[in-house]
Amino acid sequence: MEYKIYRFKSLTSTQDKAKELSKKKLSDAVIVAENQTRGRGRFKRKWSSDKGGLWMSISLKPDDTKNLQYLTFAAAISVVKSIKKIANLKTSIKWPNDIHYKGKKLCGILTEGIFGNENYAIVGIGVNVNQNKFPDEIRDIASSLKMVNKRKINIKKLEENIINNFFNLYNNYYNKNEFKKILKMWKENSDTINKNVIVITRTKKINGKAIGVDDNCNLLLKLKNNKIIKIVEGDINVRY
Ligand code: BT5
Question: Which atom of ligand 1 lies nearest, measured to the CA of 235?
Fold first, then answer.
């Protein structure tokens, strides 16, 4: 797959730049920045993006824009595979969009759709690679590959590997509507299923057991009374 890489020293957010490019009808582009001054997560949360991390957005023009959650899943699978290959570390996916190692967050993914005459999808991937420390507010929940491995990782190699893995999944599965294949790989690389979790949504906290993920990537949660509910969005804390 042909894609073009645009590199920047500093951006507000690679997502913003990717949106700007998609308005010019440029897609299949990857935007990489060494640091972001206003990196963001879901629900407009702040994403800490100092130099040393891999901050990139992949701009796509998929035929199907009704299943964008599978792009998040495909990105997560790609990151786990690449971290294994480049840093020799076995990480796991926490529903829906975190890659973690021993409970600490190494990577977050943010997929945004742009809908208009033409539809685009922007897949933002942030990986903590060579940072030595984090701001106070996330010090206890975040980690970097270097902090875990005690050695520097080649960011460019990691970047290349993630992009290749991602475009393979995008072309071979997403664009061929083979969502079940993505779901299967996601499950193989996730450690959320069969765990007791606390789900934190915008309005409440719910205790239950994560028993699966449905065809729309929603989390299926079994409550104490054995009722099964569907979680569309939220964060989970795994009770290890
Ligand atoms: C995410 O959101 O995890 C999605 C993060 C996506 C970042 C990429 S970087 C390239 C592209 N450009 C952007 O502007 N964004 C994308 P969420 O699940 O909402 O998690 C956000 C929460 O993670 C914050 O509220 C913090 O608690 C925590 N956090 C912030 N920065 C972090 C970091 N560098 N490492 C680990 N955790 C962090």
Answer: 18
> Is a pLDDT exceeding 70 seen at residue 151?
yes
240 has pLDDT over 80:
no
Please state, in angstroms and rounded to a whole number, the distance separating the CA atoms of residues 204 and 224: 16
pTM of the predicted model, to two decimals? 0.97
138 has pLDDT over 90: yes
CA-nearest residue, atom 33 of ligand 1:
48
DSSP state of 43: G
- Cβ of residue 15 lying under 6 Å from some atom of ligand 1: yes
Residues 91 and 142 reside in one and the same domain: yes
Query: How many other β-carbons are positioned within 10 Å of the β-carbon of residue 97?
Result: 21
| Judgement on whether residues 200 and 185 belong to the same structural domain of the protein | no
Mean pLDDT value across residues 87-116: 96
Gap from CA of 36 to ligand 1 centroid (Å) = 11
CATH code, domain with 80: 3.30.930.10
14: Cβ below 6 Å to ligand 1?
A: yes
